[in-house]
Amino acid sequence: MSASGGTRAIVAALAANLAIAVSKFVAFLFSGSSSMLAESVHSLADSGNQALLLVGGKKAERRATPQHPFGYGRERYVYAFLVSIVLFSVGGMFALYEGYEKIKHPHELEHWYWPVGVLVFAIIAESFSFRTAIKESNTLRGKRSWKEFVRHAKAPELPVVLLEDLGALVGLVLALGGVGLALLTGDGVWDGIGTLCIGILLILIALVLAAETKSLLLGESAGLDEVRKIEAAIVDGEVVTRIIHMRTLHLGPEELLVAAKIAVDHDDTAGEIAAAINAAEARIREAVPIARVIYLEPDIYSETEAAKGPDPEATPGGPVPNDEAH
User: What is the pLDDT of residues 225-269, one digit of tens each?
Assistant: First the structure.
């Protein structure tokens, strides 16, 4: 996996979650806290999720084959989507079930210092993991807001780790609140309510991750800045006079497909057109290094045809307005 995939953030989160999962489960055994059990399952699910992200990154590095001529870059999207499913089912649904059972059959917490101590330790460990994810993300985020970064990032690993760590920290606070109220009031129902809140939180995060990774799986275009760079690189003003239409598609986080129909003069020779296309491809790769698969089709520009507007059948997906496509 490339550095932009956030391998360091994934490994940091994996190490933290494994340690936290063990400590939470020990606290559950001593205290009987349902919040602790839900949180231990949550941390265990998060550990599995980080393992899935690492596996997806490794599989995405495989070379292209005749059956998969564009490579395996989208493996990272597939495994990120699996993470959202695991978070929803193993984390969220289990927490809802455990919270319901605790509210229905409450009991007093035993050895309260175990869950409280573990929760404080977990908050510290998760904070270090979250800090690493933020630091890694800032190198890619630029001036974008965090919401924009999560919505538009082409590499899924960092948004996944960010949302998981954020959910873990909020969940720990909810668990601490539930345990604290149960201790203060002597009513174990509060522990169950805290567990229900954790389940709802995990399900909401899972739904956000599923929506974002689904978009990546369906295929997203290059960002607006990259599209502008590609458009500027294609037209040389001599042989290539304009772009008739263009499509871009991410084959993976660090691999972009560019397909464009370009306008040339009817008097240009085949040799001149071929040389212009080769030069345009070189300029595109220099301007946007991740543009690795490029198809440029020469055509004669027609004012009459252009006046008719874009043809929905001209390219897969139909016409996409420039202000909405990217």
Answer: 899 999 999 998 888 888 988 999 999 888 999 999 999 888 888
Query: Helices (DSSP H) in the chain: which residue ranges?
Result: 7-31, 34-59, 75-86, 94-104, 113-141, 146-152, 157-185, 189-218, 224-234, 270-287, 303-307, 322-325
CA distances from 263 to 73, 193, 243, 299, 311 (A): 31, 65, 6, 5, 16
Q: What is the DSSP letter of 72?
A: S
Instruction: Measure the CA angle with vertex 217, ends 251 and 7; round to 5°.
Output: 70
Confidence bin at 306 (pLDDT 50/70/90): low
Contacts of 18 (CB under 8 A, 6+ apart): 43, 47
- Tokens of residue 188, six digits: 């174990």
